[in-house]
Design a protein that fits this description.
The protein is α/β, with parallel strands linked by helices. It is built from six helices and eleven strands. Strand 10 and strand 11 form a beta hairpin.
């Protein structure tokens, strides 16, 4: 059956991969929460939102999460709710704090890659990318370039919110898929967290298409690449 957001997925499939193409996704409530104050988050979005996430995974070459997401959720990061191949699974773990025994390390034919800072030993039995770090953080643009160099042109930044926010702040995301559930949590853990702006004139205003999913969640498909190009041309 055709997804209500098939057009959003088509844009990923037809992206120009002469350069990296990065899509980030985040699911949240109407008031911008990704979890309650206690950390409960399964599931803010309904089944259609989960279906879309799996279609996203099937549309890319690599899926990226932070070490915190592995610790909190132990995700499989595989394609199960639709037809498609599993992407490479990439975990950002600068200090090498993760051990084995997690589901993302399952030997199912997909490549498994951990991103660490240079000089980190680590213990995981998988591929490694070692990159420079500043203040314990690795520049997202370096991660994107390294993955592209390994043959992964389409990259999904799946979570958590801090990882998605860091890639957005670095200007390393081309499209943002924000799935908003029709519920109000009231208080809890926020979604995107970016540096404060002095003026609204400096805010990103991406070209956005909105799709209603089958269970009334809303998908906001934000074209950040076009927004950056327009912003840069106005400044030049």
């Amino acid at each position: 059956m055709k997804s209500p957001a098939a057009e959003a997925l088509r844009k990923i499939a037809e992206a120009d991969c002469a350069r990296p193409f990065v899509v980030a996704q985040l699911g949240q409530s109407l008031d911008g929460r990704i979890a309650t104050e206690s950390g409960e988050s399964h599931y803010i979005n309904g089944p259609a939102g989960l279906d879309h996430l799996h279609r996203l995974r099937a549309s890319v070459d690599a899926v990226v999460v932070g070490a915190g997401t592995i610790v909190a959720d132990d995700p499989r990061l595989s394609v199960r709710r639709c037809v498609g191949q599993n992407p490479a699974r990439v975990v950002i773990d600068p200090k090498g704090r993760l051990g084995g025994g997690k589901r993302w390390l399952a030997e199912d034919g997909a490549r498994r890659i951990v991103v660490v800072e240079e000089g980190c030993a680590g213990v995981l039995d998988c591929e490694r990318i070692a990159l420079p770090a500043a203040g314990g953080a690795i520049d997202p643009r370096r991660i994107v370039d390294a993955l592209y160099g390994l043959g992964f042109p389409r990259i999904l930044i799946e979570g958590g919110a801090r990882t998605v926010s860091s890639f957005l702040d670095a200007g390393a995301v081309d499209r943002l898929h924000l799935i908003v559930a029709c519920l109000i949590i009231g208080s809890g853990r926020p979604g995107l967290a970016l540096p404060p702006l002095a003026r609204l004139a400096d805010a990103a205003r991406p070209r956005t298409d909105v799709y209603r999913l089958d269970d009334h969640d809303l998908l906001f498909d934000c074209d950040l690449r076009a927004s950056r190009t327009q912003h840069d041309s106005m400044r030049s």
